[in-house]
Design brief:
By secondary structure, the protein is an alpha+beta fold. Helix content is about 20%, strand content about 30%. This is RlpA-like protein double-psi beta-barrel domain-containing protein.
């Protein structure tokens, strides 16, 4: 097994040994071959990019750390697969690692060592009133307090306190070349702080480093959502009484025809899982799989409204929202070049009963928009990472034309994408039967 992993990683990394001066996030790895390869990546970053990394402005440093942590998590995943002799799943994980490393190196090569103080022209590129807004974050002391909107405040929600904007409005907050969308849920002291945008730390951390506190930015006002709606990641502990731990980055909010994936880990392994989904129309769908430890269920959210998901033996449910895309009308984007793909892999998604979707396997964490044309019919699907498309709607005997667009997002929420989508791949192919 060790030789197998080492062979894959040598092909993947092609890196020489070197002085280890730059440290990636610590990874607790039991496999010695993996430990050595992890150290080689650190040495490679040291030789080629140490000075650049140290001089990054805050926004680039934050993005770099996110990408580096993603690599750490994939190494831990490969280590787990090796330890449990799940040999068949290692190549897929290694391909995911290769794509993440490629993305990290491309980011390091193209990033500029910009100053932390952008020009006024750059800052106000989207502003309606050409005015600065002070962007900062809530104190933890407000956790679980009532807001002026009679909601509950928590740092885990993507929420904002702001004057001059109605409650329940979604706004796109820009800081230089990055943006995040939050719900206006509270007010600061509008006499003392009329120009303040007070974000939850979950939102602020995507834009900047907390210790530098207030920054000058701008915002775009979008449209309203229900008062009881919270934008958040699903809590990892929801099903812990049933020995199920969820991934920490499963969004609770989607747009129509996006891919919902419920995944992570069984703390009590080797079980058959059944995920039950109730659609807004009260249609029910069940997906069942046997899982050793890591599990994953995906489905297409093709109805707008409120979904409920739970595991068959659990009384607990989680709510997922598919929002109307008109809520985000008026959102602004910046231009960015995206690397084109040479190829993609299409596989069939299945549970224990049957195949039920096609999966476009994508290894980067960009937002993807998939346009599928067959004859005079055209379908659109989207999501961050992989994208599912309908199995039953497509003729297996006729080719389909695929056009794939990509855009950058700071979070795992698709509506946070903030660059103009560009075409990265086109293909005409007959789908696997």
């Amino acid at each position: 097994m060790k030789k197998f992993i080492l062979l894959w990683l040598i092909i993947l990394l092609s890196m020489k040994d070197g002085a280890n001066a730059y440290n990636l996030p610590q990874a607790d790895l039991s496999n010695l071959s993996l430990k050595r390869q992890y150290a080689k990546i650190e040495a490679y970053l040291t030789r080629g990019f140490e000075d650049k990394i140290k001089s990054f402005p805050a926004q680039d440093k934050s993005l770099f750390e996110e990408k580096a942590n993603n690599i750490r998590l994939i190494f831990i995943k490969i280590d787990y697969l090796a330890k449990n002799r799940q040999k068949g799943e290692i190549p897929s994980a290694v391909n995911e690692l290769r794509a993440s490393l490629k993305d990290l190196i491309a980011f390091l090569k193209t990033s500029q060592n910009k100053s932390d103080s952008p020009s006024v022209q750059e800052l106000n590129s989207f502003s309606k009133d050409s005015k600065y807004w002070e962007i900062t974050y809530y104190s933890d002391a407000f956790e679980w307090w009532k807001t002026s909107n009679w909601n509950i405040f928590s740092q885990r929600y993507f929420s904002t306190a702001k004057c001059g904007t109605p409650h329940n409005k979604m706004i796109q907050v820009w800081l230089w070349d990055r943006s995040v969308i939050t719900k206006v849920n509270d007010r600061p002291n509008c006499t003392r702080y009329p120009d303040l945008i007070d974000l939850s730390t979950t939102s602020f951390d995507l834009l900047y480093e907390r210790y530098k506190w207030k920054q000058k930015g701008e915002y775009i006002e979008l449209w309203s959502v229900p008062g009881d709606y919270y934008k958040q990641y699903l809590p990892v502990w929801t099903f812990e009484d049933d020995s199920i731990e969820l991934s920490p980055k499963i969004p609770n909010s989607y747009l129509q025809n996006e891919t919902v994936t419920i995944n992570w880990e069984l703390t009590l392994p080797n079980r058959e899982l059944t995920l039950e989904i109730i659609f807004p129309s009260w249609k029910k769908k069940t997906l069942a799989k046997y899982s050793e430890r890591l599990f994953g269920f995906s489905f297409i959210a093709d109805e707008v409204g409120r979904y409920e998901v739970n595991f068959s033996w659990s009384d607990k449910k989680e709510v997922i929202y598919v929002l109307d895309s008109n809520i985000f009308w008026g959102k602004k984007f910046r231009n960015q070049t995206m690397e084109k793909l040479d190829s993609v892999i299409i596989s069939k998604e299945y549970d224990k009963k049957s195949d039920y979707a096609y999966r476009l396997n994508l290894t980067d964490n960009d937002f993807h928009i998939l346009e599928v044309t067959q004859g005079d019919k055209k379908y659109y699907y989207s999501w961050v990472w992989d994208v599912l498309m309908d199995y039953d709607k497509l003729d297996k005997n006729a080719p389909v034309s695929i056009k794939l667009r990509a855009a950058k997002t700071l979070s795992a929420f698709s509506h946070d994408f903030h660059t103009e989508p560009v075409v990265i791949f086109t293909w005409t192919v007959k789908l696997p039967e």
